[in-house]
Amino acid sequence: MSYTTVKEAGLVTADGRSLKSSLARAMFRKKVISIGLVLPLFAFIFFTFMLPIGDMLLRSVENDMVAEILPRSTEALEDWDETSGELPGEAAFEAMVLDLQEAKENRTNTKVGQRLNYERSGMSSLFRGSARKAQRIEEGPYKEKLIEADKDWANVATWQTIKMFSGPFTAGYFLSAIDAKPLPDGGIEFVDSQRAIYSKLFIRTVLLSTLITVLTLVLGFPVAYLIATQPARIGNLLIICVLLPFWTSLLVRTTSWIALLQQQGVLNDTFIFLGLISEDGRLAMIHNATGTVIAMTHILLPFMVLPLYSVMKTIPPSYMRAATSLGAHPWPAFWKVYFPNTVPGIGAGAILVFILAIGYYITPELVGGTDGTFISNRIAYNISVSLNWGLAAALGVILLGIVLAFYILYDKIVGIDNMKLG
Amino acid sequence: MKRFALTAAAAAMAAAAGGFAGNASADTELVIVSWGGAYSASQQNAYHDPYMKNNPEVSIVNDDSSSEAVAKLRAMNEAGNVTWDLVDVVAADAIRLCDEGLAKPIDHDAVLAPAPDGTPASEDFGDLIVSECFIPQIVYSTTWGYRHDMLDKEPTSVCDVFDLQNFPGKRSMEKNPINNMEWALICDGVDPANVYDVLGTREGVERALAKLDTIKDSVVWWTKGAQPPQLLADGEVVMASAYNGRLFAAIEEQKQPIKMLWDWQVFDLDGWIVPTGGDNEAEVMEYLKFATDTQRLADQAKYISYGPARKSSAPLVGDHAELGIPMGPHMPTDPENSKTTLLYNYEFWADNRDDIDERFQAWLLE
């Protein structure tokens, strides 16, 4: 009997199948059951969370509106050299008049005007006004008549903007999100610092979030230590003290900070009563970055304390006793033995607080004033007020990128395996 | 595939929402969207309650989402599932919704009741119909309130806001360029008739910001309408720009030591739009006819100090329903209050808002 035949015959189970396929079948059945159990949740998350988010993020590059609403002009402008500094020819004007007439019928002229207004102010009224007038233009010369309808059509920059944003995809939103603008020749130009806001806000958001994370760690560590090392009765009481604010509405906590910190507030009144400051020297602790940091540190504190506590709870007190009994002073014993054991908790708490802080919206909006607001406040503005969803999506993608970058950095330095949430 | 994802998500949510809405006992449920607070309460008292009494088969559900109405309607429309029947929005939003095809054009004379003397609705509302989709309801204004007990001298002109010497203390302004830029230019010597021409230029924007710069360190910026009356009540600021109805509530209902400064109040309008794609069109039109007739608009003024948008309603404005004080003198349209007024320029802000806002936000960061 050769080796191959032995392998082919193999081991068989009672029903005559080969052991291997029988095993595979059993494993397969298990897999199907486990996938079946996870599937509803997965489908739920996919349809209500991932798909809409992906769809929203796509908007940061999507740009089919111009070509869809102005098809003839898009085509006519293809041959036009936008860097020549001259207006496009009669054909492009004719195409634009026809497009405008059709757009007016379909009530889409203001839509495309609004889209182009994000890139160049005045486009919105140009499209609203001249679509109405274009309906009365029946024959050429189209160029003359369209310019007569609105003199902005004689401006090369108007046509450059239309051509630049007639492609199916655009980098325009991302450029706006980093305070830049595309140029007709394909280059980009950074807007002057008088108009640059987003880069400043991104930097501020990251810096303040980092500061808040550090503060929650500094304040939370001793508290978690205390809770973990007290007898259960006192520990439970303390944990309630941590959880109680955690269960209170975010809005309530934010407003109570306003009452506490404002210039006519409780804290300032107390300082004056104690003679620490004079009536004219009331401290401005809210409606600025200070207010944002104080309120957010308080609000996010439980997210630091709880993971720290859950890790510290599992560190046997005998470690420290062993270290001191072997001759270490309390401080080196703590630093060399106890502290390294808490690193997974610090990691979990820090990453949780940082990611929550970087996307915070309502607290900075209410207490942030001018120098304590975050990038998310601008995203909200673009979603609900200016309706520039493309720009909001681009800002969101960048914010997501920053979070991922910090996550990778964290993984490189601390190692994500060291994270422990509970 | 284009908008597949949103459609799927919205369908899932609608199915969930439908599960709750299905139990309602009335035959028709109208979802009416408004601003919440005292404003929605005034509509409940003046329109909803009497209407439901007359039409027991209709039940009205309030939704307080008007501040995000444009964004939400756009999303609902893309998903092909409009769940709102009637929406209360400011005029600028109404124009925008109409432009985008998210609101239905209305034949005002066919849908709305004429005035008691037979004047057709379109004439009774007059110029306030700023868009073919818009049914005006009230005239409100953004104006100034001040703490008379905290200031040595009482301000008489909006330019006193920019005078830190004679009127020291913090002031609160809305964290957005609208209205602030206009006031700054007027107080910088620009003829009010030309404000928007000047503001339309780069130099004009810089000029307004330079004026605002003189008080920048003393400004607390607000973002929600409830904030300025609160800041005044707390004594955090000595003067604040605010909606006149909110100031009325603080002064007359909560008896705060605040007074009104009507100088260069900025008029704006608020009213109904009917979203396209809603289900209950016939019922909505019937409700609209009732809720915007002369008597009903005058009734709303019993509960809140916003002026009715119908000419024929003005003489019917009476006393406050609970306080019993005459409401006329508290209306922004009262001749005593409206000696100097500015009409919010919809077209200008539609074109320039994004651009000026960017510059304004950058200025705030400086």
TrEMBL record, chain A:
Localization per record: Cell membrane
**ABC transmembrane type-1 domain sequence ranges:** 202-410
Predominant location:
membrane
Query: What keyword terms does UniProt attach to this protein?
Result: Cell membrane, Membrane, Transmembrane, Transmembrane helix, Transport
Gene3D superfamilies per the UniProt record, alphabetical = MetI-like
Asked if Membrane is a keyword of the record, the answer is: yes
Transmembrane annotation, as ranges: 32-51, 201-228, 234-252, 289-311, 343-362, 389-410
Q: Which GO terms describe its cellular component?
A: plasma membrane
Membrane topology reported for the UniProt record: Multi-pass membrane protein
Annotated SUPFAM superfamilies? MetI-like (SSF161098)
Biological process (GO), any one = transmembrane transport
**Member of which family?**
Belongs to the binding-protein-dependent transport system permease family. CysTW subfamily.
Q: What is this protein called?
A: ABC transporter permease
Q: Specify the species.
A: Minwuia thermotolerans
Automatic annotation (TrEMBL), chain B:
Q: Is Signal one of the keywords UniProt gives this record?
A: yes
Reading the lineage from the top rank, the first entry is Bacteria
InterPro entries from the UniProt entry:
SBP
Alphabetical UniProt keywords = Signal
Q: Name one Pfam family in it.
A: SBP_bac_8
Is-annotated flag, keyword DNA damage? no
Q: Where is the signal peptide?
A: 1-26
Spans traversing the lipid bilayer: none
* Name this protein carries in UniProt: Spermidine/putrescine ABC transporter substrate-binding protein
